[in-house]
Amino acid sequence: MSGGHAGAGETVRKTPSAHPGTTRRGPVVAALMLGMALAALDGTVVSTAVPQIVGELGGFSVFSWLFSGYLLAATVTIPVYGKLSDTFGRKPVLITGIVLFLVGSLLCGTAWSMTSLIAFRVVQGLGGGALQGTVQTIAADLYPLDERPKIQAKLSTVWAVSAVAGPAIGGLLTTYADWRWIFLINLPVGAVALWLVARHLNEPARAGTGDASRTETAEGAGTGTGCRAGTGGAVRERGTPPRVDWPGALAVFVTGSLLLTALVQGGVAWPWLSAPSITLLVCSAAGVAATVLIERRAAEPVIPGWVWRRRTIAAVNLALGALGLLMVAPAVFLPTYAQSVLGLGPVAAGFVLSVMTLSWPVSAAYANRLYTRIGFRNTAVIGIGAALLILLAFPLLLPYPGQAWQPALVMLLLGAALGIFQLPLIVSVQSTVPWAERGTATASVLFCRQVGQSVGAALFGALANTVLASRIHDSGDPDGDLDTVARSLADARPGTSEHLRQAVDAAVDYVFLGAAGAAALALVVLVLLAPRTFPVRTDPHDD
Q1: Is the pTM value of this prediction over 0.85?
Q2: CA–CA dist 395, 392 (Å, integer)
Q3: For residue range 417-462, what is the model confidence (pLDDT) as tens digits?
Q4: What are phi and psi for residue 270, nearest 5 degrees?
Q5: Under a CB-based contact definition with an 8 Å cutoff, are residues 371 and 530 in contact?
Q6: Answer CATH for 23-202 from 2.40.420.20, 3.40.50.150, 1.20.1250.20, 1.10.540.10
């Protein structure tokens, strides 16, 4: 078949869906969108109910683990689920993820203490990790390369709607019902998604499960030779049952948990240079070394070496890790800026941020018109280059205190730039690997982005606290410290908190400069590490 060109050497092949005649795409796409909505709504809905949850269950000192516990479980399991989906199929992994998420939701709705609620949130996170990676992988399986922007735009729209609707849904449920319903409402939604997946998603038999498959090796993967594998170089003979790298999965889980705990809790629950932080970071480094050793010896590793040996995947992983880093600036610090500096209420502050989620899916939907002409890398370079300039505009061009439309305009432009940046990279990775490696490759991308967010939260949180403490000290306020900033900013007396507003403005400016640095890092990675043309291939299942 012939197709258009996505830059020199990148061929967009107009192929049929991955398994025509066996899967009804409409119901499956609906299930994917519902599954994505479960994961996307989770954080925004829960955040609105924290006061009611703490009021009933107590545990204010540890309530942040409602979010950290979920994040840890979801992030560290993403690569494990990615490998399992390549080994056993997407359908059983997605069904397992939905079931775990619903069981966790039901348990959360019956929690009797903050400790039990945090534990049940971890169960939810175990399901959320499967939802995030497997939904993206199935979307790539269902659609050929030239149609993948459509499904990616739909999934991006789910995130956008969730960002806007989540706080409203959480507020309504906690106001007119009970906070437990923010978890129980997941049950009917998840049940519909589960039924659609079980009824309508069908996959072809996988290699090594008794089908008439040929001997496979990873040596030719990604080169257009037609070989496909997910074994990291190991050869699996026809009819050989797949082997699961459980030691590697455990090593990834433990190492990831240690590292993310250090990043999430460092500077919050304990100082960065304290014994807990240093111990966790040292143990994380030892865990990384042990994981590498285990994975190098495994026949079918959870994180195979080719994820980092192939320039395309390695470059995209690093670039999207930088995206996770820079996204902390608007997602975490912009609402505080809008309320503390601009004087907006919570709803208006949320709108300033939400405009970014409105422009993101729109630009992503039209990104294919650009990368089919100039290539994946060049399109992503344009997107992150524009994002770099926009992020620099926030601290350098916005006046103090400014008007609400000014940061809203910046966020609108930033969402458009990041839509052009992210989508070509995800589509390119999914299009340069064979079908049997797509789950692992997609999971590696999402894992790096999640780790980038955790690193960004720790790094920019420390930066903001340092700037705030310095400005408060310079103001000569004898009672000023980080613990009293929020109460002082809420003081309505004229001039009382002006120096604190300026301090918050300065802190957020520095955070956005840091985000611009992350964008610059992504730009350098794409220019220096990514190949000029990505090796797009066609899967045997697509022909």
Answers
A1: no
A2: 6
A3: 998 998 889 888 888 888 888 888 888 888 888 888 878 877 888 7
A4: -155, 155
A5: no
A6: 1.20.1250.20
